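Q: Hi! First time doing this. I have a protein sequence and I read that you can turn it into a structure. Is that right? Here it is:
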Amino acid sequence: MSENLSGLRTSLRTDLGEPSEGRWTDTDLDRHIAHAVRDLNRVAPREMKATDLTIADPASRAIDISSLTDLITVVAVEYPVGAHPRRMRHFECWGSTLTLFTDTMPVAGAPVSVYYTVPHVVDTDGSTLPSHYEEVVLVGANGYAALEYATYTSDRVNVGDHTAEQFRAQGNDCLMQFRQELTALKRERARALRTGELWTEDER
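A: Yes, that's right. Below is the predicted 3D structure, encoded as structure tokens:
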């Protein structure tokens, strides 16, 4: 089960070796978690499928997609729905309108399935992150938190067990790992798209 923001923050404190507020407030850590989630969303956003869209106008190939809240990008469009093999069509998006590229005019009122992506959300109510993405986010948030504290303490007298240089090294190491993880996720998703059929041969 995915952790909510509070759970992720607790895990981050454990990774940082600080179980309670001290160097970082809850607000600080929430900001770093949000930063890491934004980075993740650029390469591995949440995958969604809309099945309640239809072709409204019998003289048009246009579909209104304004109901797809927080849309990042449309990945694939299936029409007609339920064929075997699936009929994935070429399309164009402009604003809130999706236009199908088909040889024949689509049937008005016919359902269309749209595969699309939206940002992952992490808040006090829950999280849309898969558990393996949570670990990636925690590494990134750890890096951002360590670098922020290194900057904050760089010109101050250190009386604890960590110096600014140690936090800076920790932050850089974590962010390097974070970026490597994001690159791996990006390649993994690209391979999945290449492997899957996003259109049928007779509709190219």
